């Protein structure tokens, strides 16, 4: 399998009406239109990609294996994280990854527009005010990205997973306090119990408002949430086998679910969902053969829990969830062999352990299937993976909380850049989430097109200039000299060892001999290796000499620019 092929197409082949934006890299308000590469998948392969199953991985454990695990579980593992993981065991690394970090402090006010609280104080418990909504929502997005960037944990990766699964669009709910409550709900259960999370999300004020559950009454049940609960959040449709019958549920089931969910409203004062008995349908709700013809009698404010329990009692719910986890952590193609060897047994485990996610993730991430060569470096990075990974892997300095307005301004800037790349944190395009995670047969190939690929390059190129990018008085810049100087002395002064050190962190698999030779020639155009050693040692002897520092810095920037423009860097 040639994992580089899709991304190696010449730029001329990726033609599209949209042009590369000219001038400085400035985020836009609205995401650009999506243009599909003519080289994207038209059909999915049918032959098994691998026969490897869920048996515990027993192969070699070192930098390469640790890097594969951490690239899938974190937003851009650093060199220090890779070294620490490689010096531990797989079991120890997984235990660390599956340990949830402490709860972060809530987002704060960073704008003089919001007069309800002082700069640096949280607004999440303040009264709603439309005049402040815009700056609060921006602060929420910035805070959310900052948590993903600073922590870079498996919890963070799963936080984004659940945001793409139990979708709420912040712009649609128009209350940043609701958005924070929703984000914290997902974060707190990111590695926990998905059945409980589903119950909590069902009556969360953000979801009640987003899918109109707050308008659902006994005389006018609203079907929006009931439909998405079945179609997207739990059991999934399955093939259409008759009018109003999607195999895993029917239109009558949607209507019955809607009746179960009547009576719930959102309270803008308590920032919670609440139940009003007079608005609830008290009839017996009859479900189809897809749910073993179960009936749910009136249960008042507990009835929604009975509905969720019934849905999670279906084996297909577990399979639907596991398929989404597989596509998030491994690959988007699920052939018949993978369905039998991976999806089915993991779904059984998930259902038997009461829908706790952690044990299932441990089984998958510790398996021979996960570490099979075919699953290494096959996953195209999302915009958040790309952008946050770039910042973390090249150790771009970030503002601290000592200047919270500056810190949030930088995080907000990167939210704008990922929006340019067609992934805006807090606002998936619709209730189904970002198409790259569900649109068959292209799936994550959708992240790369004639609009987004140049914009990715713009992000890395801007950070690699000698001046970087300045936002709110803070300079965002890659310091390749400091990065190289942090390496062992013998590595930093040898051009080939130096290049390999960058490859180990930035690339998902080994480069070919010709690729390494190209990078060597980029670092030292037409020059022998000893020229780098000589220049590097001259700089070390006089580190305050601007000319000597610029000589090595210019070469390192050229090297990194070439590496970050390679197809391999777009892969994980």
Automatic annotation (TrEMBL):
One Pfam family named in its UniProt record: DUF1800
Species of provenance: Hymenobacter edaphi
Name by which UniProt lists this protein: DUF1800 domain-containing protein
InterPro entries linked: DUF1800
């Amino acid at each position: 399998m040639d994992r580089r092929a899709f991304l190696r197409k010449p730029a001329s082949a990726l033609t599209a009406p949209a042009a590369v934006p000219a001038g400085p890299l400035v985020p836009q308000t609205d995401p650009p239109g999506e243009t599909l590469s003519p080289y994207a998948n038209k059909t999915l392969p049918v032959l098994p990609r691998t026969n490897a199953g869920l048996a515990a991985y027993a192969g070699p454990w070192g930098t390469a294996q640790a890097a594969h695990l951490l690239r899938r579980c974190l937003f851009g593992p650093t060199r220090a994280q890779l070294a620490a993981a490689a010096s531990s065991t797989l079991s120890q690394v997984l235990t660390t990854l599956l340990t949830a970090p402490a709860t972060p402090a809530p987002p704060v006010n960073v704008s003089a527009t919001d007069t309800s609280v002082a700069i640096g104080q949280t607004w999440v418990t303040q009264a709603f005010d439309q005049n402040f909504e815009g700056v609060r929502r921006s602060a929420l997005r910035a805070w959310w990205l900052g948590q993903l960037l600073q922590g870079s944990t498996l919890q963070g990766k799963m936080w984004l997973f659940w945001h793409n699964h139990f979708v709420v669009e912040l712009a649609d709910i128009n209350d940043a306090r609701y958005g924070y409550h929703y984000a914290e709900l997902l974060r707190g259960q990111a590695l926990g119990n998905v059945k409980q999370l589903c119950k909590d999300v069902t009556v969360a004020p953000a979801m009640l408002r987003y899918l109109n559950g707050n308008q659902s009454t006994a005389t006018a049940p609203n079907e929006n949430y009931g439909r998405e609960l079945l179609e997207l959040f739990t059991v999934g449709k399955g093939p259409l086998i008759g009018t109003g019958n999607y195999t895993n549920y029917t239109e009558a089931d949607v209507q019955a679910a809607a009746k179960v969910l009547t009576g719930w409203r959102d309270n803008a004062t308590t920032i919670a969902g609440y139940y009003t008995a007079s608005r609830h349908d008290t009839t017996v709700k009859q479900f189809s053969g897809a749910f073993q013809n179960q009936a749910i009698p009136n249960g008042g404010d507990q009835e929604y829990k009975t509905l969720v329990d019934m849905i999670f009692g279906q084996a297909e719910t577990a399979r639907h969830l596991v398929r989404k986890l597989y596509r998030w952590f491994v690959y988007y193609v699920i052939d018949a062999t993978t369905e039998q060897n991976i999806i089915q047994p993991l779904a059984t485990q998930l259902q038997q352990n009461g829908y706790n996610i952690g044990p299932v993730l441990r089984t998958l991430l510790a398996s021979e299937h996960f570490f099979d060569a075919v699953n290494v470096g096959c996953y195209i990075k999302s915009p958040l993976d790309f952008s946050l990974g770039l910042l973390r892997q090249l150790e771009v300095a970030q503002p601290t909380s000592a200047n919270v307005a500056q810190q949030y301004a930088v995080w907000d800037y990167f939210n704008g850049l990922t929006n340019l790349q067609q992934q805006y944190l807090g606002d998936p395009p619709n209730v189904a989430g970002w198409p790259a995670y569900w649109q068959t047969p292209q799936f994550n190939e959708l992240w790369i097109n004639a609009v987004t690929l140049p914009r990715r390059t713009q992000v890395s190129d801007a950070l690699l200039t000698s001046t970087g990018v300045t936002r709110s008085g803070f300079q965002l810049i890659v310091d390749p000299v400091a990065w190289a100087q942090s390496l062992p002395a013998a590595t930093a002064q040898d051009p080939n060892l130096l290049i390999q050190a960058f490859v180990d962190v930035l690339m998902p698999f080994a480069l070919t001999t010709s690729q390494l030779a190209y990078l060597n020639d980029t670092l030292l155009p037409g020059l022998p290796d000893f020229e780098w050693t000589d220049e590097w040692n001259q700089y070390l002897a006089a580190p305050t000499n601007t000319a000597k520092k610029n000589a090595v810095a210019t070469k390192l920037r050229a090297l990194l620019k070439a590496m970050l423009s390679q197809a391999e860097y777009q892969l994980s």
